[in-house]
Structure formats: structure tokens, C-alpha cells
């Protein structure tokens, strides 16, 4: 009996997996909203007159506040100082506010023919909403990582991280596959831009998928309140168990983190790897239309296979890392797959949808291998009390890529295809985009990721972080 009373709540398998299930709902909703506009790029161009650069600006807005106002870094410090309950609730609330602003901008037809600082007003305001949302979802991401370490250290940590990412990727998958059918289903008469003029016309409802995302985010916010109750019980059980509270976070901890070479290698690998995958997802449906000849309605199906594969593979690879180890090697293999896939996408041959399906599946394997090894490796390099700040610094560096690369791709796409803008301005049939240059940029990121992953493996050998060792303590 005494034995039972003295156990921590995290020793209960049901409790720790239950806690994981609840926080995964919040992240599912966040990932859905993050990518909900991706399959709508062609519609944004035809309905609202957006260019690829406008779309690039909007997509890059995700990182504006995180990067320039250091919101992510403040978020990490708040997390280490205030704890997971406060930070989780705050970040879920920020997500709801940001999504609501984005929804308002997309539904407000009067914005269509105005500009703010030279940017299409609708693009600008939707971007502000997305930038606020980006702060929320990123801080929620680091909070969830810290929650998983709190409940799963010494247990199935990589598997748990993999499962949480799998549920989040389900949100990404739905965001790629569902918006076009939703927009078509809720077609209505609304203001559109036709040859530069505002007209009332029947067309797809671009706002319908965003409204759906907003509802999911509110559910995610409510779910986090339930988690807060569980977290209080966990702390109470650990206190009753006589477990020492952690040393409080000190600002000098930041100095320790940034002087750790392993930290920088993980951060660089993170920005290079994710910049070659997440920004790619933003353009993948458009790539399918322009390179592989799919129609707008079905173009999202092939890219949606990418997160679909990760649903099963991320927990699987997480389980392998827990039991067998080989984390550094998994990261190297993932980086090699990235360069392979993007190089084939860049070649002006093999333009058949079957090749696109195969490449997207391989990219899905890479998107399972690297994250399932990378995130559980961070606690092997950084002490637990500095984890919130360390995750936030890594996400901050990553956000430079998540912000800059989509903008660069949109710009390069417009510059490499001047005929598209000319045809739009003249009201002619719009020609297809040539995606070669954007895909070369993605392949180059993959090449750099290979170099950094090799350096990380070398550093692991020198410092003995244990990245090649299993996570489960026997
Ligand atoms: C866990 C990791 N999350 C991130 O890298 C976030 N900073 C970015 C989330 C972007 C959502 N599409 C991951 O998802 O692998």
C-alpha cells in the first residue's frame, strides 16, 4: 500500500499517455491552422488576385513576431519561469486570437482593393493574424515538448514525442486535403478580383476552412484546461513522493546553452531540415498543379500523403530510438533523403504524378526520421531546467527559416516566371509556373543539412552525449 501511495502519477502508464492525448488535441488544431491556406494558393490568386509574392509574404508572417520581436525566446523564458500550465493556456489563447484575425481578414471583402505599406491590405491583415498565431503555436510547441519530458523521462520519451508529432501531422494532413473540398462545398456569392476589378460573383468560400480551423483551436484551448488539472495532480504526487523541486531558471543558463556546441549543431540541423520541408508543404499543392498537371481540386491529395506516412513512421522511429538508439545516424539518413527528393523534383523530367507520389512518400520518411531522433536528443545535450529556453532558442533559429524560405520561394517563383504576372495583368489565360529554381533552393538546404548532421555525429562521439544510445533506462 505504502508503495502505491509513494508512486508519482507519471509512473502510471494510463496517466502519462492520457496527458499526452489531451495536449495532442491542442497541437492538432494548431498544425491544422498552420497549413490550411497551402492548398488554397491557386484560389487566392484567382479569387482575390494574390501573387506568389503575396502568398510568400503571408506564409512568412508565421515567423515575423517570433523572429524579430523575439517572442519565442520570451516564450521559452516564461515557460521556464512560470511553468507549463500558465504558458500552455497563454499560447493556446494566442493561437485563437491570431486565427480569428486571419479569418476576419479573409472574410472582409472591402480589404481587397486597399494597400497597407504597399502590401495588399487583405494580405497584410491576414499576415498579422498569422504572425500572432505563429507566436501561439510555437510557444505551445515548446511547452508540449517540456510537458512530454516531464511525464516521460526514463520512459518511452521518443515514442511519446513521436506520437504527439503524429497527431499534429494528422492536422497537417487534413489541412492539405480538406480545404479545397470545404471551400467548394460552401461556395457562395462574394467579392472577387477579376482583371483587377472588384465584382460580386459565385465562387468557393476560402474562409470556410479557416472557420473550421478556428473551431478546432477553441476545442484545443478547452482541452488544455483539462491538462492543467492533470499537471496539478502530477506535481502533487511528486511533492508527496519527496521529489526535489528543480533549481529555478536563471538568466545565466542562457549563457551555458549558447556556449554548448551540440546545441548549435542541433539548432542548425533543425533550421536547415525544417526549411526544406515545411515551406515545401506550402507550395506542394501548387507544384502538383504546375509540374505534374493535376487539377486544383485534386492537387492536395499527393502532398497529403507526406504527413500520412509520418503518422505511422514517427512513433515507429521514436520507438526504435528509445529501444535501440542510433539517433545521430537517423538524422543523417533523413538529411540524405531530403536532397534526393528535392533534386528529382527540380529536374525538368519525370513529370508524371506517380513519381510525385513516390517522392512525397520518401519525404514523409525523412520527416519521420529526423524529428523522431532530433527532439528526444535535446534533453541529452541540455539539462532539464534549461529545456524550455533551449527548445525556444532552437525554434527561434528554426523560425528564421520558416519565415525566410517561403518568402524567398514566392519571390523566386515570380522572378523566374514573369510571364505569369503579365498574363494576369492582361486578363489572358495564366501560364504554368516553372518550379525548377525553387526546388534547387530546397535541395541546397538538404545538402547543408547532411553536413551539419555529420558534424553532430562527430560531436556526439567527442562529448559522449549518448545520441546513439537508447533512451529507455534498463
Ligand atoms: C516538433 C516540431 N515542431 C516544430 O518544429 C515547430 N517549431 C514548427 C511547427 C510548424 C507546424 N507546421 C515538428 O513539428 O516536427
From TrEMBL:
Bilayer-crossing residues are: 14-34, 54-79, 86-105, 117-145, 166-186, 206-228, 262-281, 301-321, 328-347, 353-375, 387-409, 439-456
What SUPFAM superfamilies does the database record attribute to this sequence? MFS general substrate transporter (SSF103473)
A molecular function annotated in GO for this UniProt entry is: transmembrane transporter activity
- One Gene Ontology cellular component: lysosomal membrane
- Pfam families, per this entry? MFS_1
Under the subunit heading, UniProt states: Homodimer. Interacts with lysosomal protein GLMP (via lumenal domain); the interaction starts while both proteins are still in the endoplasmic reticulum and is required for stabilization of MFSD1 in lysosomes but has no direct effect on its targeting to lysosomes or transporter activity.
> What is the similarity comment for this entry?
Belongs to the major facilitator superfamily.
Q: What is this protein called?
A: Lysosomal dipeptide transporter MFSD1
Amino acid at each position: 500500500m505504502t508503495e502505491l501511495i509513494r508512486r508519482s502519477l507519471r509512473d502510471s502508464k494510463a496517466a502519462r499517455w492520457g496527458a499526452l492525448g489531451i495536449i495532442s488535441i491542442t497541437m492538432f488544431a494548431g498544425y491544422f491552422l498552420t497549413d490550411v491556406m497551402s492548398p488554397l494558393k491557386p484560389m487566392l490568386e484567382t479569387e482575390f488576385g494574390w501573387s506568389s509574392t503575396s502568398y510568400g509574404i503571408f506564409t512568412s508572417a508565421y515567423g515575423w513576431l517570433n523572429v524579430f520581436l523575439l517572442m519565442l525566446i520570451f516564450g521559452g523564458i516564461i515557460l521556464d519561469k512560470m511553468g507549463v500550465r500558465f504558458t500552455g493556456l497563454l499560447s493556446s489563447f494566442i493561437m485563437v486570437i491570431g486565427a480569428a484575425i486571419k479569418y476576419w481578414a479573409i472574410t472582409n471583402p472591402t480589404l481587397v482593393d486597399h494597400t497597407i505599406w504597399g502590401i495588399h491590405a487583405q494580405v497584410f491583415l491576414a499576415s498579422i493574424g498569422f504572425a500572432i498565431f505563429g507566436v501561439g503555436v510555437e510557444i505551445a510547441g515548446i511547452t508540449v515538448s517540456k510537458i512530454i519530458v516531464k511525464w516521460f523521462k526514463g520512459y518511452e520519451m521518443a515514442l511519446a514525442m513521436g506520437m504527439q508529432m503524429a497527431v499534429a501531422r494528422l492536422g497537417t494532413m487534413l489541412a492539405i486535403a480538406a480545404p479545397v473540398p470545404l471551400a467548394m462545398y460552401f461556395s457562395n456569392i462574394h467579392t472577387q478580383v477579376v482583371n483587377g476589378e472588384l465584382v460580386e460573383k459565385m465562387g468557393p468560400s476560402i474562409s470556410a476552412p479557416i472557420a473550421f480551423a478556428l473551431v478546432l483551436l477553441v476545442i484545443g484551448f478547452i482541452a488544455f484546461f483539462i491538462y492543467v488539472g492533470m499537471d496539478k495532480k502530477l506535481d502533487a504526487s511528486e511533492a508527496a513522493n519527496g521529489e526535489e523541486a528543480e533549481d529555478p531558471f536563471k538568466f545565466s543558463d542562457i549563457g551555458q546553452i549558447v556556449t554548448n556546441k551540440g546545441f548549435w549543431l542541433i539548432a542548425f540541423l533543425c533550421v536547415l531540415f525544417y526549411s526544406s520541408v515545411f515551406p515545401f508543404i506550402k507550395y506542394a499543392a501548387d507544384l502538383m498543379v504546375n509540374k505534374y498537371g493535376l487539377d486544383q481540386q485534386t492537387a492536395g491529395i499527393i502532398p497529403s500523403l507526406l504527413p500520412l506516412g509520418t503518422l505511422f513512421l514517427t512513433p515507429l522511429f521514436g520507438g526504435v530510438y528509445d529501444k535501440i538508439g542510433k539517433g545521430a545516424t537517423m538524422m543523417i539518413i533523413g538529411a540524405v533523403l531530403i536532397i534526393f527528393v528535392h533534386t528529382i523534383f527540380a529536374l525538368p523530367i519525370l513529370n508524371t504524378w506517380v513519381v510525385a507520389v513516390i517522392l512525397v512518400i520518401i519525404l514523409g520518411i525523412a520527416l519521420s526520421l529526423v524529428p523522431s531522433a532530433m527532439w528526444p536528443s535535446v534533453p541529452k545535450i541540455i539539462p532539464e531546467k534549461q529545456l524550455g529556453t533551449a527548445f525556444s532558442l532552437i525554434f527561434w533559429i528554426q523560425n528564421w527559416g520558416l519565415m525566410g524560405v517561403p518568402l524567398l520561394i514566392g519571390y523566386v517563383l515570380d522572378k523566374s516566371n514573369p510571364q505569369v504576372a503579365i498574363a494576369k495583368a492582361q486578363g489572358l489565360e495564366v501560364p504554368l509556373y516553372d518550379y525548377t529554381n525553387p526546388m534547387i533552393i530546397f535541395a541546397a538546404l538538404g545538402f547543408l543539412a547532411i553536413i551539419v548532421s555529420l558534424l553532430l555525429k562527430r560531436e556526439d562521439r567527442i562529448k559522449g552525449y549518448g545520441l546513439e544510445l537508447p533512451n529507455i533506462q534498463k
